[in-house]
Amino acid sequence: MLADKPWLTDSRQLPSLAQVTMGPCVAMDLMTGAYSLRAQVMAQVIHTPELFGTFVMHEAPAPAIELASVHHLYKQVNGRPLQRPGWYYDTGVQGDGVVDVQAHMVAQVQAWVLEEAGGEGERDFVLDSARCWPTPVPLDLFRESTGLDTYPVALLPAVRDGVLQYACNSEIRYRVRGIRVCQRAEWRQREPAGTGDLHRQTLRGTRCEVRLRQDAATEYHPTLSLHPMAGMALEPVLNRVLPQWQARFPGLAWTPAADGVWLRLPSGLDQGYESHFALALHAFLDHLERGGWPEALRARLRLRYTLLARARDLALRESAVARGPTHGPHPFV
């Protein structure tokens, strides 16, 4: 089975996850982020010690890895409003903010930090905090995004004063092999015309910092840049390593920026988001042809969704949905 996320909506389903990932049957989740060209270039950078160094550890003032995204409940896709099923807003079916978009972020962190290893449970992953809070979905927005005139009965427990409180936003903080990670996923009501989703990724190394940005400042196109630590000269190192990367990333180049360098990916090298689904399918079919799947893949699945299930339990215990965000405005504001 090749399945989209989320694989579970709460920790009561962890025994089923263990059964699926321990048996001989092949099951894989559709994590397309690893097939993004920029994600692969970022992995190449952080796995080049003379350029990146190593991830800053827990004593640093900021997390070594920070991931943030903003999506929109009502948006245009190929020039038409995206229609969502009514059950999309049911967190018992779709999952809440902790177990939904966060699954992609955890998968990306696993690829960067663990590389080909699967991880060893609590020896490698430590959950520090988790919180979840709602986005109000008035009936007119619900109607426009689903085509339904009323909230389904299953959603009524989440309706307050006539407005659905959709628990779709979350922030989790954890450590992977001592490397601190902060992940924040947010859903806003409507996508402003001419804009798009927002993404920020920051990877802090002892020699340089890697930043991926996609927001108004980049005209909603993803941009990748490197920023040296004090005393680090990026240009000589890039001139040495880029020729070695050309077989994998033909045409990759760099240009100076105000406080670092931009990494320029030639147009056409990445076929776009939709092409990543085909690449994930090919990887899945490769496992089928080999008659099984690597133990590391099973371990990653167990770790990924176990972490998210425990984060959801923690968020509920902290009553974060009722309190709302407490750490200031979102960085995209």
Topology:
Elements: E1 2-3, H1 14-22, E2 28-29, H2 37-46, H3 49-52, E3 65-74, E4 76-77, E5 80-81, H4 91-94, H5 102-114, E6 125-137, H6 139-146, E7 159-160, E8 163-176, E9 179-190, E10 198-204, E11 208-214, E12 223-228, H7 234-245, E13 253-257, E14 260-264, H8 273-290, H9 295-317, H10 320-323
Parallel strand pairs: 1-2, 3-9
Antiparallel strand pairs: 3-10, 4-5, 6-8, 7-8, 8-9, 10-11, 11-12, 12-14, 13-14
Q: CATH superfamily assignment?
A: Dihydrodipicolinate Reductase, domain 2
Largest β sheet strand count, sense and barrel closure: 10 strands, mixed
The total strand number stands at 14
Uncertain runs are 320-333
**What is the radius of gyration computed over CA atoms, rounded to a whole number of angstroms?**
21 Å
Topology as a string of helices (H) and strands (E): EHEHHEEEHHEHEEEEEEHEEHHH
Do you know the CATH topology? Answer: Dihydrodipicolinate Reductase, domain 2
- What proportion of the residues form beta strands (DSSP E)? 25-35%
Number of domains: 1
The mean pLDDT is 88
Shape call: globular
Helix-strand makeup class: alpha+beta
CATH top level label: Alpha Beta
- Assembly state: single chain
CATH architecture: 2-Layer Sandwich
Our measurement of the CA-to-CA distance between the termini, rounded to an integer number of angstroms, reads 39 Å
Helical fraction: 25-40%
Total number of helical segments?
10
